[in-house]
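The records we work with from here on pair a chain with its fold. Here is one such record, which you should read through line by line:
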Amino acid sequence: MCLALAALIGVPGCTSDGPAKPAESKYEDGKLRVLASSELADMQPVLKSAKAATGVSVELTWSGTLDAADLVASGKADGRYDAIWLSSDDYLRLRPEAAGKLGSETPVMSSPVALGVRPEALARLGWKPEEVTWSAVHEAVAAGRLTYGMTDPVRSNSGFSALVSVASGLSGAQAALTDADVRAAQPKLKQFFAGQRLTSGSSGWLAAAYTKRGDVDALVNYESVLLSMNRDAGTNLTVVRPRDGVVTAHYPLTLLASAPAGARESGRALTDWLRGGEAQKAITERTLRRPVVAGVAPAAGLDAQKRRELPFPGTRQVADGLLASYENELRRPSRTVYVLDTSGSMAEENRIGRLREALTELTGTGSSGPGQRFRDREEVTLLPFGDKVKKVLTHVVEPGNPQPALDAIRGDVKSLSPDGGTAVYASLKAAYEHLGKGNADAFTSIVLMTDGESGDRAKDFEAFYAGLPEAQKHTPVFAVVFGDSDRKELGRITEVTGGRLFDATGVGVPPAVAGGGSLRGAFEEIRGYQ
């Protein structure tokens, strides 16, 4: 379902908004290497027309806002990419070290953050879409009358814009968002995020999960994504742009200062064409984003009524503080079980060493920034298995004192050792049983990593899963293809549970499979879904 729906709504299958796989190509005349938001996959047909008209071809590499900002600000994008094309450069421009890295910036199209609401929820709330405010949304959520899904702000452009929209709207800020604004809005923000029932690292998976669940009232995302779901997947959402203001993505195509002269010339030719009347009309009709040049009418269904632009954080400190607050205080906590194959075959090719390294990376330190370690309040369970479950090791990252739990997890990871067979399905059952005993008010997920084929029967697990209480069926399995594991078998597990497949083999990675080809990359990317 994920692949089909994601293709329909114009984002790349199950490709992530997370860390980009490094591009290896060198600059070629007429070929622009662009680090881009993954939602721009729906621009491929337009870019094909651009090549025919201008001779400029575009090589896109997907990235999230913070990952792109790090690459550009650190200089690691120099020579690797000629331009960036994100939903917004606002976060990047908060980085002083990025100032000399950016060249010309040209907005290509726009789309505001919006709320897509199911018809039955809209009727229950008695809302008139044109009159809804962020305060009204907060009141409905706080009263337990509205639930919603949203992508992870740390790894997704749409999630970050949504977080800024909500914080600005509820704080009442009239200028650039400050720490004081965020602190004043914190009680309301905590109530608001208590209503979040779906989280995701990509808009495509979020849309598929939302459709599969059927019990979540709304989605917070870009207007274009919500309208595309209605058009292509029949979701029939009412798209609400809160009356008190929105944060709008303008999708600037930004040339890097390090780009060679030929790339800068190609970039100017491309942006000139994209801002022409023919291209602007094609963009708004195909993507349901708004044109940015006068004289081109928005596609049918795009409300022309103006909305106030909500203020963006004024400094990086405020932006990062807002992200850290979301991660560690505002959002519902996470409960994750890592079902880890530690069978005898994991001794081959230092697979067990790569597993230890990938998991250790997730422990970071107590002072690590947003997205760089397990979150405060997160319950992390390691469930290593061979012929059977070997241990169940659970730690909770305590707010204000995360280091003891992080150190304990690191120690447990270091002690993992390979021996025995591969009882995948019995171990998955044990993971679901473990999650069924704890706090239900949390985002729950299971991460399965195996390097071989299971020694027990898939049918036994599917029968077990079918008999679970409905609430537990909302716990997805994110499976990682590693070593000699069976892609088809793992794909079936993710399909049944509503999860997603990630690849850590680095060999023949299909375009619809995430993970970037390494175990470390797969585990990092999965964090956006937990």
Notes: Residues 157-171 form the longest helix (15 residues). Residues 1-23, 507-515 have pLDDT under 50 and may be disordered. The CA atoms of residues 360 and 410 lie 6 Å apart. The domain at 12-110+251-287 is CATH 3.40.190.10 (D-Maltodextrin-Binding Protein; domain 2).
